[in-house]
Amino acid sequence: MNLNRLAIYTFIGVLLMAIPMNAQDGTTAYNFLNVTPSAHTYALGGYNVTVIDDDINLAAQNPALLGPENDKQVGLNYMRYIGGSNFAGVRYGQKWRTHGAWGASIQYFGYGSMEGYDVAGVKTGSFSANDIAVGVTYSHDISDFFRGGITAKYLYSKYEDYTAGALAVDLGVNYYDPVYDVSASLVVTNLGGQIKKFADHRDKLPVDVQLGITKQINGTPFRLSLTAHHLTKWYLPYYEPADKNNAESALVKKNGFGSNLLRHLVFGAEFLPNNNTYIALGYNYKTRTDMSSYQRSFLSGFSAGAGIKVKAFGFGVAVAQPHSGATTFMLNVTTNMRELLR
Predict the structure, then answer these.
(1) Which of the listed CATH numbers 2.30.30.30, 1.10.10.10, 2.40.160.40, 3.40.109.10 matches domain 2-340?
(2) Which H/E stretch holds residue 92?
């Protein structure tokens, strides 16, 4: 028992030490890493590190959510994103001995075709841009309530004839009490750096620290989640038009305590009619305010989705409309190879 406690404290200590060492003060690249491949997570606002479900895609944002229960599970994902972008990937999990699990994933981010121009403004033809993330995950049950996990990722980018590469690591720890149905997590994502630059400039990775809690309301089919993200930096100011009815209105900086606090928080609620079905709704204030200087829709910041498991297959969908010109859609399919081959 003392060794388990020592392992827990050591793991949490490593996570906490990573916060000040990797706080980001400027802009970052590789921000495609902030787009979750999980429809369940996307339906809950795009950030969630605590939901416990039979879905290997949830481990994308927290490696500690991978476990022996995901043995021989395969997850596929597809997303139609903003501006004609298409994302897709696959994830696999395997039990390792009694208390461990490992997983592997590959995620593709394609941004469609673009027109190229030289310095004189002469058209040079169309080109494509894409990113690929390849990951390997290991998790271990530290005790009856705690699990730790780590994901190592190789990131490859190709924009026209330019390429770049980077290595990153995600660390996560989860506490789960099935009696009270409460889950809490601490995660640090994207620790690492570039190993090959596009040019002379070295780009930063979007290091993030996230805290979350999920709790099912006693005696009801409702589950609530609260996730705090971008915790490496308190101030997250944004700009909005002074006159929202005038497209040419001057922009006003918003940097008050309340707005900064809300831009760190994502709220999620679920209705669970049975063990195989969920209906989810999320609200991300940062997404809504990021669209302040655009023609956002009334639904900006909100997301919704649902999931169902039928025999050996699980299906999940999620939708969101950040602004009036962009409706995003995500689809997940999971299956357990052991159940499928029975």
Answers:
(1) 2.40.160.40
(2) strand 86-96
